[in-house]
Specification:
single chain, 493 residues, mainly alpha, 13 helices, disordered N terminus
């Protein structure tokens, strides 16, 4: 026996005399017994909910658990709660590194929220950087044009000096007055007024410059807002406090419509560019007609392209093209019919309620004109039935347009994509197959085909697999087998 065998307890035969199947003096196998058995882990019942803590002073039916003799001895054995492994982990949150049992849930929220906020902040910062670069170049261009246009709003000092000098020469000239120019060829400074085209050009260009600079200011503020939001929502607090602070700030972002402000920045910038182009066309109108015609044609083509780009996502939900005007057009397209249907529905309901009131009045005993009331009652009942039919037909359309307004363009794009799932599934797997470069990637792709056939998310797996087999799989499998063939793997026939 080894040294470790000395730890075995050699029990005498007398100990096993009362055991069945043993006799005195019979050799009994040694049994390893721990000298001090390890204590069971203590369960902290104080951290459990109150309903899980047994009341040893009461019986299972809720009555006091005392003996009839009044000695206070429990008449029923105390009920032992069935504590599962999940409960043991719940009462020992220090094992997971949290000070509270709900810490993992709040920590999960913090991780997901931090990832979402980081992506949104990166998107907003990128958009703000692009706006700042564009507004810097565009504002310099508009300011250059304004430097040459705004002096036309006031009287030219040289023209005024020429007018007064000619007038003095006229007064000091001889009787014939043939040696000087006629002062009537110079305009009177007291009657000076800028032309309407000059006024409109400067108004449009000044508005363009102001809006452009305002966009730059808002873009700078947006970057500061994003940094402030991230600084507030990512403190070194416990998961619970951090989650509450982040949710509080996130609700403020939604309630104060900060995403709308972000979407409005490109729209304001586009309006600024539009004002500049309109002012440029008007400016060239008084300079040269040929240049004016060419520039007007170019601006018209650009405006037409911009309008087409704005309308494309309304009719084609898979279009990557869009402008800030697209959202406005989408809102008008869905909002105007919704408002019309809402007005019609409310009007019909009002007339229906009035007709019902009138019918009840005619059917009452206080009515005197029986024949006339009967005719009106029949007519109004027919009208009420007609109103009910119309309201029943209008109600689905009203809900449809209301849902489109609430969902927006992104939800409409998602719904359109899900409507063509079999074809899109084939395109997804086809693109994946074309992107495979190595044999192990192809083997992994082929290993997933049985799961495709039993998938509940794919509407037509047979259709998808059939097209894959006809287009790609057959040749790919044969090529893989040819590359994997080795003469020593198979015996010669």
């Amino acid at each position: 026996m080894s040294n470790n065998g000395q730890t075995l307890m050699h029990t005498s035969g007398s100990v096993f005399e009362h055991l069945p199947g043993t006799e005195a003096g019979q050799n009994v196998p040694a049994v390893r017994v721990d000298r001090q058995p390890s204590p069971l882990p203590r369960l902290n019942l104080e951290s459990l909910p109150q309903q899980h803590i047994p009341d040893v002073g009461r019986s299972p039916d809720g009555l006091p658990n005392h003996a009839p003799d009044g000695t206070g001895t429990p008449a029923y054995p105390p009920h032992q709660p069935n504590v599962t492994m999940a409960a043991q982990q719940a009462v020992r949150p220090q094992d997971t590194g949290f000070s509270d049992s709900s810490g993992p849930l709040f920590s999960m929220y913090n991780r997901m929220a931090a990832d979402f906020d980081a992506r949104v902040a990166e998107d907003w910062k990128g958009g703000a950087d692009g706006i700042l670069i564009f507004t810097g170049l565009f504002s310099a261009t508009v300011a250059t044009f304004l430097a040459g246009s705004y002096p036309n709003l006031q009287l030219n000092s040289q023209d005024a000096s020429a007018f007064y000098l000619a007038h003095l020469y006229q007064l000091n000239a001889g009787p014939d007055g043939s040696s000087i120019s006629n002062p009537s060829t110079f305009s009177d400074p007291s009657t000076f007024s800028p032309s309407p085209s000059t006024i409109w050009v400067n108004v449009l260009w000044f508005l363009s410059l102001i809006i452009s600079l305002m966009c730059a200011l808002l873009a700078t503020l947006l970057q500061q807002w994003v940094r402030r939001y991230l600084h507030i929502t990512q403190p070194r607090f416990s998961p619970h406090k951090r989650a509450r602070i982040r949710e509080f700030m996130a609700q403020g972002v939604e309630k104060l419509r900060l995403p709308w402000v972000v979407e409005a920045l490109p729209a304001l910038l586009h309006i600024s560019v539009f004002f500049f182009f309109v002012g440029l066309v008007i400016f060239l109108l008084e300079i040269n007609h040929t240049v004016y015609t060419i520039v007007r044609a170019c601006v018209g083509i650009c405006a037409g392209l911009y309008l087409c780009i704005s309308l494309v996502p309304i009719f084609r939900h898979d279009s990557p093209y869009s402008t800030p005007l697209s959202t406005l057009i989408w809102t008008l397209q869905t909002g105007v019919p919704w408002l019309v249907l809402k007005f019609v529905s409310m009007t019909l309901e009002y007339f229906k309620s009035c007709s019902d009131t009138f019918v009840q009045c005619c059917l009452s005993d206080t009515c005197c004109c029986c024949c006339w009331c009967c005719c009106c009652t029949i007519t109004l009942e027919i009208f009420s039935e007609l109103v009910s039919v119309i309201s029943h037909r209008i109600s689905p359309l009203h809900r449809f347009f209301k849902q489109r307004i609430m969902n927006g363009m992104v939800k409409a794009c998602n719904d359109s994509a899900l409507a063509y799932s079999p074809e899109l599934d084939f395109q997804v797997l086809s693109w994946t197959f074309k992107s495979l470069d190595e044999d192990h990637e192809l083997e992994q792709f082929l290993d997933g085909i049985p799961g495709l056939l039993t998938s509940s998310e794919v509407d037509s797996p047979d259709y998808v697999l059939g097209r894959l087999q006809d287009d790609y799989l057959a040749n790919a499998i044969l090529a893989l087998m040819g590359r994997s063939w080795h003469p020593t793997w198979y015996p010669r026939l």
